[in-house]
Automatic annotation (TrEMBL):
Matching Pfam families: Rad60-SLD_2
Function: May serve as docking site to facilitate the association of other proteins to the plasma membrane.
Name of the protein in question: Membrane-anchored ubiquitin-fold protein
Location(s), subcellular: Cell membrane
GO cellular component, one term: plasma membrane
Domain of life: Eukaryota
Gene3D superfamilies attached to this UniProt entry: Phosphatidylinositol 3-kinase Catalytic Subunit, Chain A, domain 1 (3.10.20.90)
Organism of derivation: Abeliophyllum distichum
Membrane disposition: Lipid-anchor
Length: 117
């Protein structure tokens, strides 16, 4: 029975409402390992998938989970129902380089001029 308590069934909810999982993970699993699992199971048909662990933010019970924490550390006693599925929300951040590329290269392009007569 204690082996079942050391396992958590986790489902990862993507921003479009689709899910990855549910899948069982030991309570000692790190958040970074969960993120690696998400990258490995990311649906191929979805655009803008994560490339690295740093591209993903996992949110559980309203808290952003840190990579060095374990699943047991992140459990919320209010949200975990014995035998239930824990849902973690997945947010994919664009890498910093891609954000820079989207900025306009010509600062005059966004220039606004007002004339008062």
């Amino acid at each position: 029975m204690s082996g079942a308590q050391d396992q958590l069934e986790i489902k990862f909810r993507l921003t479009d409402g689709s899910d990855i999982g549910p899948k069982n993970f030991p309570a000692a699993t790190s958040v970074a390992t969960l993120k690696e699992n998400i990258i490995a199971q990311w649906p191929k048909e979805k655009e803008n998938g994560p490339r690295t662990v740093k591209d993903i933010k996992l949110i559980s019970a309203g808290r952003i989970l840190e990579n060095n924490r374990t699943v047991a550390d992140c459990r919320s006693p209010l949200c975990d129902i014995p035998g239930g599925v824990t849902i973690m929300h997945v947010v994919v951040q664009q890498p910093f380089m891609e954000k820079e590329k989207k900025l306009p290269s010509d600062p005059k392009q966004n220039k606004c001029v007002c004339v008062i007569l």
